[in-house]
Each structure stands twice: as structure tokens, then as C-alpha cells.
Amino acid sequence: MAALICGSLAFDTITNFPGRFADQILPEQVHILNVSFLVPTMRREFGGCAGNIAYNLRLLGGEPVVMATLGDDGDDYVRRLTSWGVDQSLVRRIPGAFTAQAMIVTDQDNNQITAFHPGAMQFAHETKVPEGRADLRIGIIAPDGREAMLSHARQMQAANIDFIFDPGQGLPMFNADELRHFVSLARWVAVNDYEGRMLCERLGTDLETLSRQSNLDGVVVTLGGEGAELWLSGHRIVCPPVQATTVNDPTGCGDAFRAALLFGLERDWPLGKCVQIGNRLGAAKIACHGPQNHCPSREQLLAS
């Protein structure tokens, strides 16, 4: 079986600021903010939510089907996906556009400031979720173009593909009615702590109440180094973290975690087991620079 991954393919320019953002930004002066961060290190990585999730799903032995867009500069990404054996039948090239680009600055506390150019991602809604593919029984709506996320969620439901709603950094694009509609179509919701609070605030609810919604089989909230919370029908379960050998780069940790959810849920594993694997994969990723360079063994990740 395969997992449909709707999201972005992007190039990440990742830099590190050796100080703390909090020491450089004066709260009382944010209305005239003019800040420059000296970033001594810089590298360019393959990224984007769809690419990152696909990479991690392949590490686990899964079969990702990537549904995303690339620009004129996407040849290297095509070769990379091909080298993993990823199904690219739903990857489109957009002439005259750049592949989406993220410019990320990380401080010494692993806080991040990101500027994002959507480029070809703005045309992602033109690709339709296929109907009648018996190999697709699970998917994820990850951060993508606004119209793409809305239309692909509806199309997944019409195609009887159970999906995870992962609004990520795209959450502020949607109003309360739109977010409520996403949640009503999804089978699972995956957010980090900040996104969880924002989602609940927009919907006028809380995680306990949200998780009681009849169509949802679980709400997962990642807590960084504190592990994760799992909400099942109003009950909160704390899933302890996995200690990383070192902390080098948080970029892509959430995507690694979501790949583990997809892998386990496709196999009908309990959500708690999926979260445990996600914590292991996130710990392996954060020890490595870049979102697609870690390579833990499958046996290590799936150990009982």
C-alpha cells in the first residue's frame, strides 16, 4: 500500500545565528522593527514538507506518493526523488516559476525565523487527487498552497482516502470556518504545541473537546524535546521523548514525526506506537543537519 503526501517540495537555505533572537528583539520596539542577524554558516538543502515526509517514510520502508509542484530549477529534486524510488506521477513542473524556497535562520535555542517564497507551489491546486487508486488508503494534507490544501482535503474525502490534517505553518492562512471544515474531513490531526493552541483558539475549543469529535481517531501534539501528547476521545496520554545524541538542527523534525504516523496508521498500528516511532525518528533527525540527511536503521526505528 502507498501513502499520498500532499505538500510542498522546496529548497531550504539554512543559516545559524549564534545568539538568541530574544536578546536582539526589543518587545516595546516591534512596531519599528529593524533587525539584522549575522549568520556565519549557510547551506542549501532539499526540503519542503512533502519531500521531507517522503524521505522519512522511505527510511521506514513505506511507499510515498508525492503530490507537489516544482519549478524550472527542479531537476535536482526530480533526480533525488528518483533515487529513492518515489512515485512521482503526481509531481508537476511549472514553467516560468521557481521551486518553492525557504530561508531559515535558527538561533542557539533552536528558535527559527523563516521567509518563504511559494513559487511553483502556488499552482499545486491544479493537480487533482486521483480517484480509483486502490493502493492509496491513507494520506496527509501538509502545508502547501492555500487553494491546494482546501481542494485536496475535499478530494481525498471523495476518494475515500483517510488523511492526517497537518496545517503547520500554513495554519494562519485559514479562517475558523475553513479550519473547522478541514477537521471535519480528517481522520487525524497533527500539530505542534503552538499550532495546537492557535487551532483551538481559532475554533473556540480545546484539545480535549476537539478530540471528542466523532470523525477523529486522534489528535497528536508534538512538544519538541518534551515528547508528545496524544488525545483520544477526550483522554490525554503523555508520550515521553526519545533523547537525541546531540541537538544540531530542528528543521524537518515535525515532518519526520508525521512520516512515522503515516507508516504506522497505514498498518493499523495503535496511535501510541506510531507516536513512539515518531519520537525516535525526530531524535535521529535533530542530531543531523538538514531535513533529509539522517539515516538511522529501520530496525532501530521499529524496535519494540
From the helix content, strand content and strand pairing, which structural class follows? Answer: alpha/beta
* CATH top level class name: Alpha Beta
In one word, what is the shape?
A: globular
Relative strand content: 25-35%
**Would you give the CATH topology?**
UDP-N-acetylmuramoyl-L-alanine:D-glutamate ligase
What do the pLDDT scores average to?
94
- The side-by-side strand order for the widest beta sheet comes to 5-4-1-8-9-10-11-12-13
CATH architecture descriptor name = 3-Layer(aba) Sandwich
Topology, number of strands: 13
Low-pLDDT ranges: none
Q: If you compute it from the alpha carbons, what radius of gyration comes out, rounded to the nearest whole angstrom?
A: 18 Å
Question: What does this entry look like structurally?
Answer:
The protein is built from ten helices and 13 strands. With 304 residues, the chain is an alpha/beta fold. The chain has a single domain (2-23, 42-298), classed as UDP-N-acetylmuramoyl-L-alanine:D-glutamate ligase (3-Layer(aba) Sandwich), CATH 3.40.1190.20. It has a nine-stranded mixed sheet, with helices on both faces. Strands 3-2-6-7 form a four-stranded mixed sheet. The radius of gyration is 18 Å and the shape is globular.
List its traits:
single chain; 304 residues; alpha/beta; UDP-N-acetylmuramoyl-L-alanine:D-glutamate ligase; 4-stranded mixed beta sheet; 33% helix
